[in-house]
Amino acid sequence: MLGKLLWKLSHKLNGNGSDFKVHWHKSATQSWIGDFFNKDIHTLPSPPMSAKIEDLALKASMLGELPLWEGFEKLEDYPFPVKNATRNANQVRVDKKVGDLFYNLVVAKKPTRIVEIGTAFGVSGMYWLSGINANGSGTLLTFDPNAIWAKVAQSNLSMISQNYISTVDTFEDTHHKILKPGETIDMAFIDAIHQSGIVNNQFKLVSQYCAPGSIILFDDINFSYDMWDCWVKIARSPQVKASCSIAKRIGIAELN
């Protein structure tokens, strides 16, 4: 109860966070993310296709609000109304600074395989793909059961790269069909339904494919107290070597 009250007070006073600062939840003297964030992240370079990505994101938003996946209506205790709910691309996308961060993480880490749970309109995916383009190798596997949003996302992603596989279904139901035996996930982005039960299950499933040093990112960690508490527990768990959050929105965990 006290934790929830403190979270509400912090949320009211500080908002959802826009200062783009790094806050460490679990530091390690020798960790990849520790080395990566030992720099001024305000000066990270943008991808060469940044203007094109932002133009495509704007055009996606101009399509107006499109319906959420119908599975949202089956959720219990969701903090916002979801019956017949709609969203536009601008309401659910990561902002440009976060997109630049994604690009730089990929360029530095050089992952063979990135998994994104929650394609939405493809904005974050375009930034992941821009890093894959810069490296000249890698594949993005992106999952989202919303068929209406997926059409927009696939069009956007294809304008950046063909090095992706878009699965119009949940990761939980299809991961074993898309990921072949022995394939590993080097980097993952969990950005679907922001409820602890679902996020914890997705983290568990993704981790089964990860080797030590893999990086898992979580979006909207300040979405609700339930989501914040979920993130903090993951960030401080024995499975995690080092963890930090950016602008109170993105959680980043490096696995042991």
* Number of helices, where a helix is a run of at least 4 consecutive DSSP H or I residues: 10
Enumerate the spans where pLDDT stays under 50 for 5 or more consecutive residues.
none
Largest sheet: 8 strands, mixed
Distance between the termini: 31 Å
**Average pLDDT level:** 93
Radius of gyration: 17 Å
Fraction of residues in helix: 40-55%
Multimerization status: single chain
**How many extended strands?**
10
Spatially, the strands of the biggest sheet line up as: 1-9-10-8-7-4-5-6
Order of helices and strands: HEHHEEHHEHEHEHEHEHEE
β-strand amount: 15-25%
Can you walk through the features of this model?
The protein is α/β, with parallel strands linked by helices and 256 residues long. The longest helix has 14 residues. It is globular.
Brief digest:
With about 260 residues, this protein is of the alpha/beta class. The protein has helices spanning about 1-15, 30-35, 50-60, 90, 95-110, 125-135, 145-160, 170-180, 195-205, 225-235; strands at about 20-25, 65, 85, 115, 140-145, 165, 185-190, 210-220, 240-245, 250-255. Helix 5 (about 95-110) runs parallel beside helix 6.
